[in-house]
Structures are given as C-alpha cells and as structure tokens.
Task: structure prediction
Amino acid sequence: MADQSTRSVSPIGVLVYPFGAFIVFLMGLVFAVANSTHSWGIATPIIFAVWFVVFDQLLPRIGRLARISTERSGMVYGLLLMPWYFVGEMLGATLIEQVSVLDWFSGRWFTGYELFGAGSFAIKSWLWALCYSVRVLIIVYLFIGMFMTEGERTFCRHCKRAAWKIRWESIVGNFDRERVEAISKFDELMLEAGPHDPDQSRAIQIVVRTCKCCRVADLYTEAYNRKSEISGKRLVFGKRVSVDEILDLAEWIQRVDPQAQLPGTKLDGIEDFEEASVEHVAFDQPIAPEGEEWGAKYRDYGAMTAMEWRCDSEYTKAMRKRIMVGDTLVVPEAIERSKNINDTACIYEASADWGKPQEWIGQWCAESPESTQAHTVRGINLVKQAWIKRGSGWTPKNYPEFQGLLRDAMDALDFATAIDPKNATAHAWKIYAGKGLQQDREQVRSYFDLAVKDHPDLHAAHWMYFDFVTPKWGGSEEACIAFARERLDASPVGSPSIAVIGHAHFEIAGEWKERDKKNGFKNYLAQPEVRADIFRGNQKAFRDHRMSMVTPRVRAFFAYMLWQTGYISEAREHMEIIGKSTPWDPFMHPMFFFLSDTYPKARKACGL
Result:
C-alpha cells in the first residue's frame, strides 16, 4: 500500500476532461464522416475495427493524463466521456446527410446499409437495430473497461502517476500449458520449477511497470508461446511488488531459465524503488471534531460491502492517508488515543476497510503476535474480503473461498478476544462472521452480549445483530422488531445504539414494500406503534447524547425516519445540524448528476 493513493478524481482529471471530451468528440465526428462517405455497408465494421485499435491506444493515455487512481473513478470518467463520442458521431452523420437525428435513424431503419454497392442486400429494420445496438455496447464496454483498467494500476502519491511505464520485460522458461494457465498469484509463479513443455514453446512473459519516479512497481505475467511469439492468458494482473520481490524473481528466473533476460542490479533505476515503510511521525490529528460534531465523507477504496461504517471522519481520513503512504504505525496510535467505544470501533473498521488484501496487516500480526489490536484489524479485513468474494447478490459466489475467509476471520477475532476478553469491537465483528458461517442464533447472540456487556453504547454490535435477525438472513420481522424494542428499553439515555430501532423499522418497511410496491413502505411506517417507537427512540438517543464519530450516521437515520413518519419539526432540527448534504443512508444519493437525491427533497418538505 505504501505510496498508493485512493483519490477519486484529481484536480488535474477535471482539467483534462475538456481535452478528453474534445478528442473523443472528434473521433466520433471522423468516424461518421468516414462511414457516411462509403456506400458499401461492409466498410462500417472495417472502419470501426480501425477505430477500435485507435481507441485502444488513445483512451489509456487520456486516463494517465487525468491521473485516474481507482477503478471507481475510472468508471465514472469513462461514463462521462462516452456521450461526447456519440454526440460527435450523430452530429457528423446528420450534417453530412443533411437530415435530423430522427430522420437519420428512420432512414437506417427503412433503407439500411447496402452491403455490396447499389441494389445489393441491405441490413435494415430489426437486423440493423441489433447490429447498431451491439456496436453501441462495444463502445460502452470500451470506454468503461479502458478507464477502469487504468484505475486498477497502483497509483503513486509522489509523482501522481500510475505504474504503467515498462521497466523490464523477460520471456522465461518452458512450462506445461495447463500449469501455466492455472497460475493466479505471484507466490504460485515462484513455485514453478520449469521446464515442463516437451516442445519448448510454452513460456511466461514477465513485465514490471513503474510509476514515473520509480517508487511503486506492478508485476504483470502472461502465458507466452515462443514459436508464434504471441502472448496468451493474463496470469497475474497488477501485483504490487517490492525491491525484495523483484530480486527474488530474478533469482528464480536464473534457476529455471538461465537464458532469460534478467533485471541486473539496476532494472533501469531499481535503486530508486522505495520499500513500503516510511519514517514514522507521531499521529497528532486532534481526536475531537472541528465543529459541533464529526463530519462524514464517503470513503473511496473501501470494500463496499460488509460495512458498519462506510464514511470517514476527519480523523479516520487522516489516518488512512498515512496508511496509504506506508506509515501503518498510526493504527495502534489512533486506537490507543480513542476516547469512547464508538470512536474505537470506527477507527478499527477504517483501518481494516480496503478493497484488496493488505500485506501490512499480516506483517503487523507477525511482528506483534500478542496484540489484540492487530488481530482485530486482521479479522475485520478478512470478513470484508470474504464478502467481496461472495458478492452482494442473493446467490453467493465463490462459496468455498467465502467460507474459508470467514473461518480465518473468526480465528483472528477469537485470538483477539482471548488476548483481551473486553475487546468489544472484536466481539461485535464475530456477529458478522457468524452470520456468513450460518451459526445458530444462540451462538451469535453470545457475541452480541459479550460486546455490549461493558459497552452498551456500541452501535456496531447493535447494527450487526439486528441485521442478523432480519428476514433476509433467516430471521423474522417479529424477531427483528423485538430485538430493536428490547434495546430501546435497555440502552442508556443518550446512547447512539438506540438508532437500532430506526434501522429495524426501516428494514421491515422495506420487506412490506416488496409485497406492495406502491403502498407497503408508507403503510408500515404509518402504524401508530411504529411512529411511537421512532419518536421515543429519537427523544431518548438525543437527550444528553454522547457524541462520537457515529453520531452523523445516527442523526441522518433519525432525520429520515422522522420525516417519513410525519414528525417534521423533529426531523428539521436534525437537518439544521446536518446541513445541505449527507452521505448517509437511508437517504438515496445519486451516482450521477441526472439522478435524484432524496435529502434535498426531505429538507424542502421540512421547510428548509
């Protein structure tokens, strides 16, 4: 992770956007001109194939100029640029043919493209529409795929460049095809002894790419056929490598194929590569919020699943920035400085919330085997990696890997609580792991009871257990609401954990909506006992409220539920503190500018 950035779209990306838009607009215009000046329809796929090759070279360069640093920002960038191509194409086609867009489409529908000159067979009507739709889908895939691929590369915070510059290429060894194509990890590659291929044609092509300043490097490997000199299946894509790993790779190459090109001692600048560690400076970020309460900003480069806390406060954001440049010592410092259990849980989760496995977590556990903090972070990260493997749909994917990761997570969390039985955060995350492992109700309830025994304010434990007893995970509406009301009564005044009453009623309202799309949601929330629960929960949670990093989430949830149940003045009080925007559910937020946002609608309904 050393120098990897997780910025979404950098300022330079915004500046490059007009340039990129002009280029792809021009490409669409030129394609339309080239296509419209050829009477034979067969020329269309030929011209498009040429354009495909041009885009293959052009789009990644626009991505590099824009300094795209994540897959998510790459997807957004591709979606925002793509319409300009179609605008250019439509403008060019209609201007040349002197017709409107509607007439252009109707002309293709009724007349079509004559394939082999005047009077020949024409592709028109549904056949033309099908071909045109396929071409549009290819363009969409091209734009999104190219920019997302660019965002996958390791991004260097120092030179603000992705690791794309080729520093070393080598064709290595003769390998059995099936064994070569089964390789998916760097460690598996290093286990191959070679040579295995009798005809000595199967090899591996190794490519090491770096950023501009040579601080970060990625390894790419592909199957390679020496006879035809053609690359085959991609085996390892963008594996972050250190100096030591490159040197180990060179030693392995020398053993298996002495004739292969070695990186030598420099790799054209290998001495400039930096290890993941950096000089540690004490983490002195203020533990108190700057304003009335902690702010919340959507977290980029998170796991996007298995999340109790999906936003960063100023504190966790600063901590994650330090982690991303290799200073992982900030994690135990931040945890030690925490002032309450909810802040502690948020810091733990932010430390562990990454889209990919983190080597530094394993190193921390190895260096500090008796650290409850290290094993808690490892356990949370494994839970998140497990849910990434599973996917978010109803039908699980990669089920064996999902279960294996969850068992590893449970082992790590058990180890953490064995070291410190009062580690409430570790007990809470066992609930999430136990849910995936399909443990029985009594076992999972024991994790909750241990988590809240000394810390009844712990929002994470309440949220995770409420989710465990919902109908979608094998529970029931009755069990879900009964638990929420139990905690409404048991939780102390001012506790953020009281928000579970809002979470539970929102979840069951969603179940009613599945049965009655039009009225189910509002009919459920209109029930007097539901409205009374929401009102009482709000009054109890925010009387002498104990402020923490989870407060913005709790406030947003009560604001939404009060608005939906008709308590307008109470909802308005929260919205005045929240301000003009919030990243928190259950308010719906637009991914793109043309989608609606329910928070402004709620503010307007409350007179703001």
The beta strands are 113-114, 122-123, 155-156, 161-162, 165-172, 202-210, 217-225, 230-241, 297-298, 311-312. The chain is about 55% helix and 10% strand. Residues 1-9, 591-595 have pLDDT under 50 and may be disordered. Residues 125-152 form the longest helix (28 residues).
